[in-house]
Amino acid sequence: MPERLTVASAIASPELTTYELRWRDEPIQFRPLRPDDRTRLFEYFQGLSAETRYLYHPHPFTEEYAERLCAQNGAEQTVRMIALREHEASSPALAYVILDFGLSAEDMQRYRGYDVQLERPICRIGPSVSDACRGRGLGTVLMEALGRIALRFGCTRIILLGGVFTINERAIGFYQKVGFRKMGRYGIEEGPESWDMMKELRPSPCLEAAP
Fold first, then answer.
1. Cα dist. 52→49, 61, 153, 160 in Å?
2. Exposed e or buried b for every residue in 7-27, given b needs 16+ CB within 10 A?
3. Mind giving me the DSSP string for 103-120?
4. Hey, what CATH topology would domain 7-200 get?
5. How wide is the angle at C-alpha 38 spanned by C-alphas 34 and 39, nearest 5°?
6. 139-155 burial string, b = 16+ CB within 10 Å, else e?
7. What are the beta bridge partners of residue 124?
């Protein structure tokens, strides 16, 4: 049985979480952010529409923040990943995904209200896809990989990092299609109400990492 992954091992040996995937008959690579991805990540942020930025809202989208994210990948139990066209060395990012293996007291309290006892290891995800790729199946391909990555970390559940705004019906429908279920609603001062959503994972053969 493969050794369980940790954030430290995933960052120290990025090949462990580098995946060669197929999207619309095209090879793409899904891998952890590197320090030299700062310009690529900022360009990805710049390409997001105002609506996408509002609905995604995990952090600032500035050049300085992109540089920080790339330089400090692995901090605070978080692995940040990007998807790229494999045959284009300098291609823009197709997607950016946060995998957070921490668990906040707020998460635990909210889920207890849904009669769910959250415990580590658990994977909280914040996925985003470029506006140009939305509705073209990339999210589905990445969610399959994310589920298998989470299992390699020993997780049996995935929850949405910060939930999903209740007004974001398109995203809610997508998450339900790939196996998430609504757990309950909660509100924050910074925006509209959000749905907490969770997916139960079943052990399956590991997705092969790139050599």
1. 5, 11, 29, 16
2. beebbeebebbbbebebeeee
3. --HHHHHHHHTTT----S
4. Aminopeptidase (3.40.630)
5. 135
6. bebbbebbbbbbbbbeb
7. 100, 159
Residue with tokens 């997780």: 155
Amino acid at 60: P
- Domains in the chain: boundaries: 7-200
For tokens 């901090």, the residue is 75
Look up residue 141 and give its amino acid.
Answer: V
CA separation for the pair 33, 147 (Å, rounded): 19
CB-side neighbour CA atoms (13 Å) of 64: 1
Q: pTM surpassing 0.85?
A: yes
> What pLDDT tens digit does each residue of the chain (211 aa) get?
578 999 999 999 999 999 999 999 999 999 999 999 999 999 999 999 999 999 998 999 999 999 999 999 999 999 999 999 976 667 789 999 999 999 999 999 999 999 999 999 999 999 999 999 999 999 999 999 999 999 999 999 999 999 999 999 999 999 999 999 999 999 876 668 999 999 999 875 544 444 3
